[in-house]
Amino acid sequence: MIDRVYFYREGAAKGEPKAYLYALTDCEHCKAGMAFLDTHRIPYRYVYVDQLPPEVRIAFKKEVGQKFFRNLLFPMLELPNGELLFGFEEPVWREKLAQLSL
Question: What is the model's pTM?
Answer without folding.
Answer: 0.87
